[in-house]
Amino acid sequence: TPERSRPVMALPLGGSSTDDAELYQLASAELQRLQRQYRIMERDREAYQDEMRTCIAKQRKMIDMLTREKQELLLAARINKSEKQETKNASYKTRMEILLKQQDLIEAKIKSEQLQLRELDAQ
């Protein structure tokens, strides 16, 4: 935990050598405190960077996984649509074959009736 910063004391003018020694000790103590606080903050910053790198790596993995899943779903949707279209096409084909057979039967019937009409007209 960061220590509270102490107010910087004003230097007295024209002090004795004991005052200078006390000031030097105070300045040294303040410097040590600030250096300790700096080291703590630096470790905290490094720990935060490591934590964020890990978090970002997890997020990237999740994005990659979701992107792959999206592509798979889009492909499945296209395949499903294609299969439905194929089923519809098969149904149309079957219906068309039935209609063509009916047309052939009707055309054959028409030809038969036209032949009968010609025979009747010829009599």
TrEMBL record:
Coiled coil spans: 24-76
UniProt keywords, alphabetically: Coiled coil
PANTHER family: COILED-COIL DOMAIN-CONTAINING PROTEIN 63
Protein name, UniProt field: Uncharacterized protein
Organism name: Cacopsylla melanoneura
Upper classification of the organism: Eukaryota, Metazoa, Ecdysozoa, Arthropoda, Hexapoda
